[in-house]
Write a structure and sequence with these properties.
It is found in: Cell membrane. It comes from Weissella soli. By secondary structure, the chain is an all-alpha fold. It has 21 helices and four strands. Helices cover about 70% and strands about 0% of the residues. Helix 2 (about 30-35) crosses helix 6 (about 85-100).
């Protein structure tokens, strides 16, 4: 009876549920999102190096770098790489969308960038607003010492003529607000990238283009080909900006952030969100579908902004949950939920090294040992296999969920600090990646998660190993009789 129920459940998932999910995952928009975000990775990783250098966790070195001025140089390098990741997303997503349609793609990427910038008010709040008043930060010197308190700043401003006070406290206009170029503008960049890619492709295929004679060089002709679709998109973008500014006195990026980005980031940054992501990675993989790729593409749209926000807080020396730091970030996903590979299968590797009896388990374990150090576990997924393996299904599903809950909890209760926004490459070995993304406490916690994996997998692996061992013994006996 139980086997019939399991069979029906498996049939429903493989015939009904997975095809629908795969149809969604393979849509043009989702493919553009997945592949387009890849273009941001070099800047995220390189920017993380500059972030570490600008915030060296050794006080003496940090002070020396600050006094020498190099800390400011590293900060600028971080700001113009990791700090503008929404730009890379806006360009990359539109580029990939149009490239996948078989068209000249770079003009679409640049059109997306222009549209993304056009949708925001080109202004920033004057620095005076943040330093004035009793709760203001005050004015500090190069050493970080407050030389004029917030109250003192207000008193001095109050003595000026009203017109001058108004001028000094008005927003600075004619500048790009860099806040929207980081994680805060990521969802808007994704939407713009997808819509621009879609509209550009549609217009080109519909023949909305200027065709020049064959004698005109291709590089010149391509730009005229892009002129009409790019022009239509940018005119429409300008009109959208104008309507929102005149009717609501805000811009599209603010609307998207407040109505969509903030709620979705909040959901992804919850315990429920962490559990759901951890479960779905293993769920997809169990049926042979690349769970890491699917969830990385979908959840990354909200987890990468969480990482960027934490990086900004870390860079400002304000990394704490009270200051708005996120618990679930892209590094939470890469370096805990997928630690040593989807399903956190290091526990299986440990079992094969110390307790396995079957030749199959031992052989696959030796093959998997080195890849596991770099968070790759395809030898286990398909060689053991873990895919559709009822013996190991429970630990494969359960281990990431346990790690997600426990890691969320140790950060939430202040046992370890929030992740600092440093984006360690996903192939960085465990413990080393923990130190990079959260310091020595996070490295210790990451080591503990490896132990948890071993404890969860061990009894199930032992049972499966015994099953394989008995099969091998039976095969050996039969072969012996035939001889």
């Amino acid at each position: 009876m139980e086997n019939q129920v399991n069979g029906k459940m498996s049939s429903f998932i493989t015939k009904k549920l997975l095809p629908a999910i795969l149809k969604f995952v393979n849509t043009k928009a989702v493919k553009a999102l997945q592949d387009g975000m890849v273009y941001a990775l070099p800047f995220i990783i390189i920017g993380s190096i500059f972030l570490i250098l600008s915030n060296v966790p050794v006080p003496a070195i940090a002070t020396a770098l600050k006094n020498s001025g190099w800390s400011a140089f590293f900060t600028q390098a971080y700001t113009t790489t990791f700090g503008i990741l929404s730009i890379w997303a806006a360009v990359g997503i539109a580029y990939v969308y149009v490239r996948n349609e078989g068209l000249e793609a770079l003009p679409a990427g640049l059109t997306s960038l222009s549209a993304f910038l056009m949708l925001q008010m080109l202004q920033v709040t004057t620095p005076l607003v943040g330093v004035m008043g009793k709760s203001g930060a005050g004015i500090t010197n190069s050493a970080g010492t407050v030389v004029l308190s917030g109250a003192e700043v207000s008193n001095h401003i109050d003595k000026l003529p009203a017109a001058l006070q108004s001028f000094l406290q008005s927003p600075v206009t004619g500048v790009i607000n860099i806040s929207w170029l980081s994680g805060q503008g990521m969802v808007a960049a994704i939407i713009v990238g997808i819509l621009v890619g879609w509209a550009y492709s549609k217009m080109i295929k519909a023949g909305w283009k200027i065709t020049l004679p064959e004698q005109v060089p291709a590089n010149v002709a391509n730009q005229f080909t892009a002129m009409i679709p790019s022009g239509v998109i940018l005119i429409a973008t300008m009109l959208i900006y104008a309507v929102i500014k005149m009717t609501l006195n805000t811009d599209m990026l603010n609307l998207i952030y407040n109505s969509l980005s903030a709620p979705m980031q909040g959901l992804s940054d919850s315990l429920v969100g962490a559990i759901l992501i951890a479960f779905l990675v293993s769920f997809f993989w169990f049926f042979g579908v690349h769970g890491g790729l699917i969830m990385g593409g979908i959840a990354g749209a909200f987890l990468i902004p969480n990482t960027a926000n934490n990086a900004a807080l870390y860079q400002a020396g304000k990394l704490s949950l009270n200051n708005g730091a996120h618990i679930v970030t892209n590094e939470f996903y890469n370096n805990f939920i997928n630690l040593t590979g989807s399903g956190i299968t290091i526990g299986l590797v440990i079992f094969t090294l110390v307790a396995a009896k079957s030749v199959q388990f031992k052989t696959i374990g030796r093959i998997e040992f080195v890849p596991a150090l770099f968070n790759i576990n395809e030898p286990f997924l398909f060689g053991l296999p873990l895919v559709l393996n009822p013996f190991l299904a429970i630990p494969f599903f359960l281990t990431p969920v346990i790690i997600a809950i426990s890691t969320y909890s140790v950060i939430y209760f202040g046992i370890v600090p929030p992740l600092n926004g440093v984006a360690a490459p996903w192939t960085t070995p465990a413990i080393i990646s923990g130190f990079l993304i959260g310091g020595w406490k996070m490295a210790i916690w990451q080591a503990i998660t490896l132990v948890i994996s071993a404890l969860v997998y061990f009894p199930f692996a032992k049972k499966y190993d015994q099953y394989l061992f008995e099969q091998e013994q039976e095969k050996a006996r039969n072969e012996g009789l035939e001889i």
